TrEMBL record:
Residues 11-78 form the HTH gntR-type domain. The lineage of its organism: Bacteria, Bacillati, Actinomycetota, Actinomycetes, Pseudonocardiales. It comes from Saccharothrix longispora. It holds the Pfam family GntR. Transmembrane segments: none annotated. InterPro entries: Bact_HTH_transcr_reg (IPR050679), Chorismate_lyase_/UTRA_dom_sf (IPR028978), Tscrpt_reg_HTH_GntR (IPR000524), UTRA (IPR011663), WH-like_DNA-bd_sf (IPR036388), WH_DNA-bd_sf (IPR036390). Keywords: DNA-binding, Transcription, Transcription regulation. Gene3D superfamilies: Chorismate lyase-like, Winged helix-like DNA-binding domain superfamily/Winged helix DNA-binding domain. This is GntR family transcriptional regulator.
Length: 256
């Protein structure tokens, strides 16, 4: 780590130490590396442990460091960019060189809530396939998906193996290629159930994506995904396009 000295001056000591630790986390240490203990940092840089605690706490809040109870503080895993096109989680992870895995938590025919029923164009009390899955990459839980699927387009979906690429299954089994989607993204804290599935604390930041996807104008899927905020980010390319004179070309992040 940086051996720079912390000196008295206009810049607070905790801010100086924060910058030293940030450089280490971003440039020197690989993801998952331990950083020295509060006691060791205080001794090395000749500052109080309160100063160390303030510097480390700010970097934890920024997502550059992460604390593991009883183990210490570590550099965080690098965030992955959410892709800006309609692609399955399985294909996305393989393209990144990661090994995808899917666990089906529940699946069956149920009556969807009004919002999902309307999105899929279903009649009153018409049932649909409800699918809940946990998605992992290289063994690390990344996302929980809770989705509804149209019985008119993909009847009997719950009877298939849903531990692989769902989009590939729908294309191969039903001859349906999802070709369009509308998506809304927001942030929320993890509820106890989702936090347990993702291996994070209750209240941890999550990126939430609600996607309604279809094929040839027919709605097929209404899925909401909860992604770990410490491992994912959204990048968008914005163009200065007048919405009155042409289509708005800002890209909205899509869940992989």
């Amino acid at each position: 780590m940086d051996r720079a000295e912390i000196v008295d001056g206009p810049k607070p000591k905790h801010a100086q130490l924060r910058d030293i630790l940030r450089r280490a986390a971003e440039q020197e240490l690989p993801p998952g590396s331990p950083i020295p203990s509060e006691r060791d940092l205080a001794r090395q840089y000749r500052v109080s442990r309160i100063t160390v605690r303030a510097a480390v706490g700010q970097l934890v809040a920024e997502g550059l460091l992460t604390r593991a109870k009883g183990r210490g503080t570590f550099t965080a895993r690098r965030r992955m960019d959410v892709q800006l096109y309609l692609e399955s989680f399985t294909d996305d992870m393989r393209r990144r060189g990661l090994s995808p895995a899917t666990e089906v938590l529940s699946c069956g025919e149920e009556e969807p809530p009004p919002a999902a029923s309307a999105a899929l164009g279903l009649g009153q009390h018409e049932r649909a396939c409800r699918l809940v899955r946990l998605r992992r990459a290289d063994g690390v839980p990344l996302a929980v998906e809770r989705g509804w699927y149209s019985p008119r387009v993909v009847p009997g979906l719950h009877g298939h193996d849903l531990t692989t690429s769902l989009y590939a299954l729908i294309a191969d089994t039903y001859g349906v290629q999802l070709d369009h989607a509308g998506q809304t993204v927001w942030a929320e804290g993890a509820d106890p159930e989702t936090a347990k599935l993702l291996g994070v604390r209750t209240g941890s930041p999550l990126l939430v994506f609600r996607r309604v996807a279809g094929s040839r104008g027919r709605p097929v899927e209404d899925m909401t995904s909860w992604y770990r905020g410490d491992l994912y980010q959204v990048t968008m390319q914005l163009d200065r396009t007048d919405p009155e004179s042409g289509p708005h070309r800002s890209h909205k992040g899509g869940t992989p």
